[in-house]
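Minutes, project check-in
Item: structure for the 216-residue chain
Input as provided by the requester:
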Amino acid sequence: MIRVVLVDDHALMRTGLRMILEKQPDMEVVGEAEDGEPGLALIKRLQPQVALVDLHMPRLSGIEVTERVRRAKLPTRIVVLTIAGESPFPRRLLEAGASGYLTKGCPAEELVRAIRQVADGRRYLSADVAQQMALGNLANSDTPFGDLSTRELEVAMMLAQGLTAKQIGVRLKLSDKTVATYKYRLFEKLAIDNVVTLAHLATLHGLMDAAHTRIT
């Protein structure tokens, strides 16, 4: 039996995931958490084979949860869930220790297949992400973005996609002041002073498709 923990700040998402997994004869949802901190505590206590972890959470992001699970040398394997187009960083996630990367819009069959594959000790990437990585179109440590923190990366890509600071704050559950601080820091690290340049830089380094850039 594959024991699974769900970590997502949206109750509806957790309910949907639970309904899918409870239909599988070889899977059992043993716990849920609505944020990274309690989710990490749950993973440490229950040590399930697999944890489905949302990338964007208020206090502790999916990447941070993944990194802490790895540092603690826990047996749980992490599958990170993202909204399609929100995070072009599968390489960063894998480097952090994630075993799988899925978008929340994937078919139920793919989710189940990914969990079984990860529980079996293998990695799972959706076909489109695997193809992008094979073509070398994603970020690596040689780009300027490699110096950004996890939150700075998240804020940078949302800005590049055309989201306002207020929209980013709502999505990440951060105050306007905190978003402004992240924006200032990432601009300083990238040596830029506007969002248009940020979007062009992200596209230049293959962090996002030009079609995803809503800045003109």
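Outcome recorded: The chain is about 50% helix and 15% strand.
No further action items on this chain.
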